[in-house]
């Protein structure tokens, strides 16, 4: 998407992103809690189910520069302790370098990435066994409950594709070099572009718009079978939605974009 600097592809989706960016600007968050996945880059040898980053940076990819994130370390530490206290055995990350799963939403939705306070919350969506959808919602709810006592305007973001099946994640190898990963994506690109499932995507967005938890759980737990390995990233949407109170999250745009091998959607909840 970011390599398409002229914005020729995904025009409907880009319009939705612009609307979401405007909503974020109006809300003017003082803190961003970002639930994101990983593509076996930061978490290859060890893949925690859930994690909280106390310090982090972004990997340089496309138009995203290498840059440190402004993570409020003490608050992230307190969140980690609070989650352990309610029986989530999370990992704590320090100095972790995060890829476009985190970099893209930050750069598309925030005016100044390095100036914003951001707590990255990685959710394993790529290296099975994955948390069940119900457990992911419970985790997001626990994160939201911690922040209820924090007197700040807090934006929760869940980021990841809808239906897609990245060639680099269709096997379980964790030790690929970056060159091997890119070669695998290139070799499988044409086949992957035909694996988008618009019916599944629209059904998921419809359930999100009603916050139909049983249906969201059913769909997320069958994401690999019904919508490709990359569709497991909707777990981050569920975590963010639960953190925000489980309100309906209304779709702004949806578009299947074959050159991006992904069903692209964007949705926002009403401000509480």
UniProtKB/TrEMBL annotation:
Please, which domain of life does this record's source organism belong to?
Answer: Bacteria
Q: Which molecular function GO terms apply here?
A: 3-carboxyethylcatechol 2,3-dioxygenase activity
Is the keyword Oxidoreductase in the record? yes
What InterPro entries does UniProt report for this protein, alphabetically? Xdiol_dOase_suB (IPR004183)
Q: Might you give the EC number(s) for this enzyme? A: 1.13.11.16
Group of enzyme by EC: oxidoreductase
Q: NCBIfam families in the record, alphabetically? A: PRK13370.1-3 (NF009909)
**Any idea what this protein is called?**
3-carboxyethylcatechol 2,3-dioxygenase
């Amino acid at each position: 998407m970011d390599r398409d600097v002229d914005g020729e592809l995904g025009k409907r989706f880009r319009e939705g992103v612009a609307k979401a960016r405007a909503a974020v600007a109006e809300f003017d968050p003082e803190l961003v809690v970002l639930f994101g996945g990983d593509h076996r880059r930061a978490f290859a040898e060890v893949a925690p189910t859930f994690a909280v980053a106390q310090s982090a940076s972004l990997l340089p990819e496309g138009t995203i520069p290498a840059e440190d994130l402004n993570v409020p370390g003490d608050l992230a530490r307190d969140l980690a302790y609070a989650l352990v206290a309610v029986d989530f055995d999370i990992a704590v990350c320090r100095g972790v370098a995060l890829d476009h799963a985190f970099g893209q939403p930050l750069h598309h939705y925030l005016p100044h990435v390095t100036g914003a306070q951001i707590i990255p919350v990685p959710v394993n969506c790529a290296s099975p066994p994955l948390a069940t959808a119900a457990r992911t919602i419970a985790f997001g709810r626990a994160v939201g409950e911690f922040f209820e006592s924090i007197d700040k305007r807090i934006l929760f973001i869940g980021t990841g594709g809808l239906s897609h099946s990245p060639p680099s994640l269709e096997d379980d190898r964790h030790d690929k070099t970056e060159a091997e990963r890119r070669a695998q994506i290139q070799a499988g690109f044409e086949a992957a572009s035909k694996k988008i499932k618009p019916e599944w995507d629209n059904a998921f967005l419809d359930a999100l718009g009603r916050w139909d938890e049983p249906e969201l759980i059913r769909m997320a737990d069958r994401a690999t079978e019904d919508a490709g390995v990359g569709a497991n990233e909707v777990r981050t949407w569920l975590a963010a939605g639960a953190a925000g109170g489980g309100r309906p999250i209304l779709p702004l745009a949806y578009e299947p974009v074959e050159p991006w091998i992904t069903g692209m959607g964007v949705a926002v909840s009403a401000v509480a």
